[in-house]
Amino acid sequence: MNFLPRKAFVFSFLLLLGLIAPEITFAQNQRIIKAKVNYNEPAQTMEGFGASDAWTCQFAGLWPEAEKNKMADLLFSTQTDQEGNPQGIGLNFWRFAIGGGSAEQGQASGIKDEWRRQASFLALNKTYNEEAMPGQVWFMNAAKARGVKHFIGFVNSPHVNFTRNQKAFSSDGKCNLDFSKADAFTQDLAKTIQILKKKTGVELDYLSPINEPQWKWNEGNQEGCPYTNREISVLIKKLSATLNQEQLKTKIQIAESGQLNYLTNHPDTAKSKQIDYFFNPNSPGYLGNLKNLDRSISGHSYFTTSPEQKAIAIRNLVKDEVAKYDQLRFWMSEYCVLGDSLLKGEGRDLGMTTALFIAKLIHHDLTYANASSWQWWLAVSTGDYKDGLVYIDKSKTNGKVYDSKTLWALGNYSRFIPPGSVRVNMSVSNDQDFYISAYLKNNKLITVAVNNSEEAIHLELSGINQKQKSLSVYTTAEVSNLKRSVVNAEQLNLPPKSVTTIIANK
Questions:
Q1: Which pLDDT belongs to residue 504?
Q2: Which end of the chain is more exposed for a tag (fewer CB within 10 A), N or C?
Q3: CA-CA distance, 58 to 200, in Å (whole number)?
């Protein structure tokens, strides 16, 4: 359990009880921050926010209707209660894990934890079982029913039928795909897309066939496959040809770099500088001319979150490199807390410590790296780890469902920043432990402020109509989950240790 400093907790508790109003008049020594929206400095156009069904949803999707619907509502719902408080965080991207067949292998897979083995429609005997992934299919249908618009199929390892060692992880830290079977692998991916469309009515918008190719994936803790840039280029060209042959609309998305500097200037030249390698027409691995390659490149924010100035520099470089290529977009396509100098991955945290860390990271990825999409790792987790949005008991059949503050803090972005919003730059008078970003859509300004300090803050927001008396404000803090309030434009007051979304007219 996380304990806020007494002042922060008391403020938040009184706010929840209604004993003080959000528009409380602060003392003269109250911290005041002035933020200006610079409409003449537009940045990226936002596409959305998402998470993956990996590992847990294969079992959680088999739970009783009430419990699994609660999970789905928390992740996807755009409904509100009678007071206007959101019932879920409205994700609009959903990542479907296309497994490598380790689940069917069981203990022989070499992956000890069965919750980390993944199923596949393709069986070991080379036939197809369209009923092999019912839990994941349930969540895909639940996402669709709640309005999710974009679906991504992602692959951690080729199916074991196509690997060198018949395992879903590498034996020697080198690429485990048997390239003599690469065409069969791409045909299996096309068949998977067709089966999913048959079962859900959804033809995947994107297919990501490579995941964190820089790692060796030789420990057998989970499915994974290393690739060099050259190997990726060869595979993607084969996959492109197969998708064209099958007349599928699905776009290929690359390259899920294990950390952001592999996109730019990491010294491992065989696996780095991926933006240039895949999108520079003079590169031997150029893929930008493939009509079904999405004009985006993705990376993961792992191991690049501190120290602060280094984290910012890495993201600025990603932005600058992406900007060299016409209409190229950057996705931050996976993150959870694995470990940082400020926060360790071990230990489940349902409170504000991790939530504030993630809200700040989202801010940095959006404002420095110009990410147009931001996607979390495990939507549902059973572990004693900071890797989930929703947590459940580790049971294949039933149990309790637990929401987290990290879920709701992500919701401060995902629930209110619609696709097509344009991020606009801001200037801030005092940004110590304070992070703010703004997004414009249809004359509405959506502002997300992260107050990581122990002080309440009065925000003077320049660039909106100051005569407005009905700004919608949604606050996530120790005692509130996207709690809605309505305030005047001059009464923007942010609790300590909180994430706040403000919706105003321009």
A1: 96
A2: N
A3: 16
What is the reported pLDDT for 185? 98
pLDDT under 70: residue ranges of the chain: 1-29, 341
pLDDT on residue 25: 43
* Residue for token pair 């209660």: 81
Q: What is the DSSP string of 445-480?
A: EEEEEEE-SSS-EEEEEETB-TT-S-EEEEEEETTE
| Residue matched to tokens 């931050």 | 332
Measure CA 236 to chain center. 23
Task: Please tell me the distance from the alpha carbon of residue 191 to that of residue 194, in angstroms, as a whole number.
Answer: 5
pLDDT of residue 1: 39
Predicted pLDDT at 12? 52
- Check residue 368 and give its pLDDT: 98
SS3 501: strand
pLDDT at 26: 45
CATH number for the domain running over 48-419:
3.20.20.80
- Roughly how many angstroms between the first and final C-alpha of the chain, as a whole number? 40
Kindly tell me the burial class for residue 324, based on how many C-beta atoms sit within 10 Å of its own C-beta (0-12, 13-18, 19 or more): exposed
Output the pLDDT for position 29.
Answer: 55
| All CATH 3.20.20.80 domain ranges in the chain, comma separated | 48-419
Q: What is the pLDDT of residue 4?
A: 46
CATH 2.60.40.1180 domain position(s) in the chain: 1-45+422-505
Return the CATH number of 1-45+422-505, one of 1.20.1050.10, 1.20.1540.10, 2.60.40.1180, 2.40.10.480. Answer: 2.60.40.1180
